[in-house]
Amino acid sequence: MNEAEDLHPIFTKDPEEWMQFVYKKASIDYNLVSLVTDDGVEHVGLVYTVDPVSETFVLVNFDGEDVKVNIVVGHCVKAVSVLIEDSEMYKQRLDRLFRPIAASKMTEEEIRNQQTVVRMWLLKNRLPVEVSGPQGENLSVAEALVIQPPYGPDNCVSNNEIILGKIQGLIKNMPSDQHEW
């Protein structure tokens, strides 16, 4: 066995290989039919995400108002095939499913406007803030804190409790009217 075979796939697979499945309708099967896993069951659903370390898929199925989330553990997956390529058809519905309730009630335009307002407030308070994330959906403050949609105090993520508390307080005390700045 050579050294490359000893490495975990996280070190040998390009993340783009996993991203090609996100928001697509995929079929994951456990036998050698179309998608293969080791118990002979075929799983079909919309791929919300794939964990690149465990190679685990999170599949979602919508049946009217009912939603079924299925987690298929990576070591069982033998093959994956994409059934529907149109990712935009499902993207918004999947994103709304996993967003906080406040964010799911907001339109994309309202979320972008809120991002701009919070960004401007942080800049006014002389904090280094940048737009970050794969689709520019997050705000990054001094590379120490991330603010996710809908950009409220509860949407701040940081390992530094002091910075987290300060930024959350700043956002809580942000005037509702921008003209008061």
From TrEMBL:
PROSITE patterns referenced in this protein's UniProt entry, alphabetically: AD
Pfam families listed in its UniProt record: Gemin6, Gemin6_C
Alphabetized InterPro entries for the sequence: AD, Gemin6, Gemin6_C, Gemin6_Sm-like_dom
Domain AD: 81-179
Domain of life of the native organism: Eukaryota
Protein name: GEMI6-like protein
